[in-house]
Design goal:
By secondary structure, the chain is mostly helical. It contains 3 helices and no strands.
Length: about 100
Amino acid sequence: MTYDELIERLDPMVYRNLKQSIELGKWPDGRAMSREQRAISLEAVIYYENKHNIPEEQRVGYLDRGEKAGTACDPSVQFSTRKKDVDPDQFVEVKV
């Protein structure tokens, strides 16, 4: 059986257990995961999610930026030390 076939036939419960194990850093029986086990499990989970078209917001590593997307609170916004490179439209004023 190839890796591709294994992921294709992976039971959804096994996928959920792997995902939870990655989040907690330990197996369902309480034993700690090694770095290698965590990396291999993460690779399998990501591959499973791509193969089975899991919605983006349910995938491992998804960050919901919500209303903060594109603002100074969004880590993907690039800042420059030169003032002329700052786009004032990327910031939203919040009054408290």
